[in-house]
Amino acid sequence: MTRVYISRDMASVALGSDALAEAFERAGCTVVRTGSRGLFAIEPLVEVETAEGRIGYGPAGPEDVAAILAGSHPSRLGPIEALPFFARQQRFTFARCGIVDPLDLAACDWRGLRAARAMAPQAVIDAVKASGLRGRGGAGFPTAIKWQTVCDARADEKFIVCNADEGDSGTFADRMLMEGDPFCLIEGMAIAGQAVGADHGYIYIRSEYPFAVETMRRAIALAEPAIAPFTLEVRVGAGAYVCGEETALLDSIEGKRGQVRAKPPLPAIQGLFGKPTVINNVLSLAAIPFILSEGAEAYAAVGFGRSRGTMPVQIAGNVKHGGLFEVGFGITLGELVNEIGGGTATGRPVRAVQVGGPLGAYMPPSMFHLPFDYEAFAAAGGLIGHAGITVFDDSVDMAKMARFAMAFCAVESCGKCTPCRIGSTRGVETIDRIIAGGRGGEAVEAMPQMRNAKAQGRSVEQEIGLLRDLCDTMKYGSLCALGGFTPYPVLSALDHFPEDFGGASALTEAAE
Amino acid sequence: MTLSARRVKSAGMSIETEETTGALIARLAAARRGQRGALLPLLHDIQHELGRVDREAVAAVAAELNLSRAEVHGVVSFYHDFRDRPAGRHLVQYCRAESCQSRGGAAIEAALAERLAVAMGETRGDGQVTLEPVYCLGLCAIGPNALVDGAPVARIDGEAAIERIAATVAA
Q1: Strand arrangement, sheet containing B146-148
Q2: How far is the C-alpha of B43 from the C-alpha of B37, rounded, in Å?
Q3: How many CB atoms are located within 10 Å of the residue B110 CB?
Q4: Which among A215, A384, B102, B164 is least buried, having the fewest CB atoms inside 10 angstroms?
Q5: Is residue A99 part of a domain?
Q6: pLDDT per residue over A19-47, tens digit each?
Q7: B152: which chain A residues are within 8 Å (Cβ-Cβ)?
Q8: Which domain holds residue A500?
Q9: Is A403 in the same domain as A390?
Q10: CA–CA dist A102, A401 (Å, integer)
Q11: Is residue B53 very low, low, confident or very high in pLDDT (cuts 50, 70, 90)?
Q12: Which one of B135, B151, B153 has the shortest CB-CB distance to A167?
């Protein structure tokens, strides 16, 4: 009986992989449902097992089954690994994703966990330190330092929390990993538990990822004996973006409003339920098994500057070859967008890319020389964030995108600090006035008792000055990255695309 | 107290019975007893069973978990997922985030809302469909995307795709 491999990743299912799998089953094939390989332009993808290995066909539909099984279908891609999109990758974290049945326990050897359990906890932390692994959630904070702090803290109970509240648009690596290789994340969390002395872990997954929730829950049940005495539990979010902020996430698990906590105390000292807590992103924890099984040197051998190892980059938006591309740091933004991504899907010129989700800067093609590296991006006024790249063509209106950034912040603000809660709404209003060409004086300001109010309105330049001032307040005055980083997309749009903000225009007639 | 018709399995047979909201919540809360931070999972359970978390449910949850109604209301109203009235028979959650916007999401949203005859964030007058915004489903290279009754739909890029959604929600 012919064996075929078809993804059941949420993206693949959205493109029709369920119908394809049913068709192959009807044709008498053994269908193995895997995670996604990560290149959506060739999905729905089917790989047929042959004497020469797995041969891919895609995109494929139910009507193509006979021709594919005969080996004569024109969408024949050959071995998937040999496609340029995959041949250039360094798959450390996503090594098994797209290849194995995510719930096949036999496909996971737990080598990393076994290695960790044969070592002293401090040796595990030292290995993570030597790997140079930095938090993949966005901040790039060295993972081993968090672990060391929790390890050194004295408490009757400690926790490992996985931040799987991947709310940034343009990112889907967490989702793909949880759906495609959940045991990798489970193993990473069990290793973290061993290193710091924690017995229980939580994976906080956003409710927008129902497939990931289901797969993780089933995988945890299957992995229970392998990771014992460490135990794990999935918690599901409820549509609040801000819960991706680590302290808001902790409050949410505790059953409270997902509001940001002031730091200190650090979660590593007083985290979940007041206990020392390691809180790491999915990709940070999923990088751990490789580091323990292959060695810290093997991980640190790739990378750029102080950014060591690989980054699962997500190429998204208006792009021809969108998908997941895991590669060592140092590749340039231009290579990712133009060579690997193949430019825009619409075929129009790329005008801007947003790197790092809704809080990341918009960058014009003149910045495509930047190497993918935490420091290089920070120096250029941007951030890598969770390494999502959203591509826009020349039809994009950057003033609208800047407005959206402020509006999103207003919708999602937890309300705890004023710059974010009020500033975002004032930001939307200010950008609206910029788009409208400034504002005239209002009747209320002309009243005699409004002695200190300016009665003559504001020009676009003055409104832009106000907006910059507001961004400055939000950036330095907000409690967390939501209010603090919303200025990145706004200011980068203003700086790199001033022509979309009306440029220099005279005072409105009403002002006189 | 509202009565909600519920199917309860008893002694191996399936019988139709009536359970009050209060009794339902007491049963759901009992299943979560001992779980730390049980409020959010319990609210998910309630919304799953009743399709909403309304004032009556808030009061019952507060009583069960020994919290004040204000505390429970604060949590319920904080999270976008919880609704105080049921959604329509079909639920379309349409992504509004940047990646979908970069692929023409705003224009498609307007066309979809017009075709379904319902404004974004609203339930149609006949209760057939609710259209809601979501911010990112993690399908960012194949947008614009939506969840239609929980099933992911990608590449909503024109009339044909909108018609398929319209057909689903017409059922």
Answers
A1: B129-134, B90-95, B146-148, B151-153
A2: 11
A3: 11
A4: B164
A5: no
A6: 999 999 999 999 999 999 999 999 999 99
A7: 10-11, 13-14, 211
A8: 399-511
A9: no
A10: 37
A11: very high
A12: B135
